[in-house]
Design a protein that fits this description.
The protein has 255 residues and is α+β, with helices and mostly antiparallel strands. It contains 11 helices and 7 strands. The strands form 2 sheets. Strands 1-2-5-4-3 form a 5-stranded mixed β-sheet. A hairpin with a 5-residue loop joins strand 4 and strand 5. Helix 2 packs parallel to helix 6, helix 6 packs across helix 10 and helix 7 crosses helix 8.
Length: 255
């Protein structure tokens, strides 16, 4: 682990996590769901995750609390982009934190290569969306970069598969989502199948203090995805296969 203050190391002031956690905890204290997404969510779920400079503050909320969440963030000193929020607030809101860091708040869903509806398990974790949704938000990326791979590896190395533990990867939700949508299934299984090869080329991404072997965990999830019951919609789309593109190419929304 890098020593704080070492040459080239991020200082505490560079770390967005304390500010993001303070906002999430403050909202929870006001009985509002403002849950972390992305790399910061991985760090909360896996406390040994290595500090990176370039993590964004990304939150999730649900429609029924959207206006209250927006008012609470405004009151907490986060400057809203009123024009953007008026135009797009039903699906995404944008704020600037007191530190000057940008904040994105996704409403109900995360739309990237696929659409991840995080509402069904939104209340399972106090400060992040559910662990399986954090994992799926990374596995649904068609063109993964090393940061995405690192996040996946840390989740698989830290958390048990199943749904019994308070912090675990809910395999029931995982199987149901992939069994209902062939596009999701194709992307996620493709990424899981590449884990061993990718980590063979990047062994340093596997944490030494891991609780689980990430390649073995990926293999178990891949087996589950293959064996899970498939819907009629899944089977019809599978007949079309890769002749038609099964994913979207996400674009950054201008603020």
């Amino acid at each position: 682990m890098t020593t704080p203050g070492a040459a080239g190391a991020p200082s505490p002031a560079d770390d967005p996590l304390p500010e993001a956690l303070a906002l999430a905890r403050g909202a929870a204290g006001a009985s509002l769901g403002l849950k972390l997404l992305g790399g910061l969510a991985v760090r909360v779920l896996c406390p040994d995750f290595r500090l990176r400079r370039d993590q964004d503050i990304d939150f999730a909320c649900v429609t029924k609390q959207r206006k209250k969440v927006a008012d609470w963030l405004d009151g907490a000193g986060c400057e809203p982009d009123r024009r953007f929020n008026n135009l797009n607030g039903d699906r995404q809101m944008y704020f600037t934190a007191p530190s000057g860091r940008p904040i994105d708040v996704m409403v109900d869903k995360l739309s990237m290569c696929h659409v991840l509806d995080f509402r069904p398990s939104f209340n399972r974790q106090p400060l992040t969306i559910d662990a399986v949704d954090v994992l799926l938000s990374k596995l649904q990326i068609v063109e993964m970069n090393e940061k995405d791979l690192r996040d996946i590896v840390h989740l698989l190395a830290a958390l048990p598969l199943g749904g019994g533990a308070q912090v675990s990867i809910d395999t029931d939700r995982f199987g149901k989502l992939l069994g209902a949508d062939w596009g999701w299934w194709r992307t996620v299984t493709g990424n899981l199948a590449k884990m061993e090869e990718l980590l063979g080329d990047r062994p340093a991404l596997i944490p030494d203090n891991r609780s689980y072997e990430p390649v073995a965990q990926a293999g178990r999830l891949l087996e589950l995805a293959v064996q899970t019951p498939k819907s009629m919609k899944w089977k019809l789309r599978a007949n079309v296969g890769e002749r038609v593109r099964w994913y979207e190419l996400p674009e950054e929304v201008a603020h």
